[in-house]
Amino acid sequence: MTDSLRLLLGAAAPEQATTISDLARALGLLWACPCTYENTDAEDACGKCGTPRATAYDPDPGTEYAYPLSDYARETARVLGLKKGWGAESGYIGAYGLIWGPGVPTLRLYVDHDDDLVLRAQDDPFAFPHVIELRDGAPGTPEELRAVAERIASVIRLAYT
Ligand SMILES: [Zn+2]
């Protein structure tokens, strides 16, 4: 069977078979299961072990990251107390947020060049940045957003008040 397939595909030597299956995979005619079994494009699960065909991660818009950083900043100001004089403002298209409060310099909440979420005095580029650890990743629900804001608020209380 394999030999006749080889002949059909025009490969004279067995070592060419690898090249042909690579080509077939590149064209989307075959997909390789992690168990190494080659499946045709028509199969949604591996014909040998039954593993479902992996599909590319492709989240709908607005579902992967529910909140821009400006929402983190605004929620933090709510945690610290709007009536106590805390406030927040959105940075450009929500990519960062500004937070201010009584006796505290305006703080910028943003992602730095090391991909850390940091808080730093807005008007002092040499000020020490405080890293905010997101243990559970980006918040996806109002409750998770509040939990992140409480972490940011506690950093502000410790470092700036
Ligand atoms: Zn398999």
Characterise this structure.
The protein is α+β, with helices and mostly antiparallel strands. The protein folds into two domains: 2-40, no CATH class; 69-160, no CATH class. Helices cover 30% and strands 19% of the residues. The protein is built from four helices and seven strands. Strands 3-4-5-6-7 form a five-stranded antiparallel β-sheet, covered by helices on one side. It has a two-stranded antiparallel sheet with strand order 1-2. Strand 6 and strand 7 (130-131) form a beta hairpin. Helix 3 packs across helix 4. The protein is elongated and about 80 Å long. The termini are far apart. 16% of the residues are buried. Zinc ion (ZN) binds next to loops.
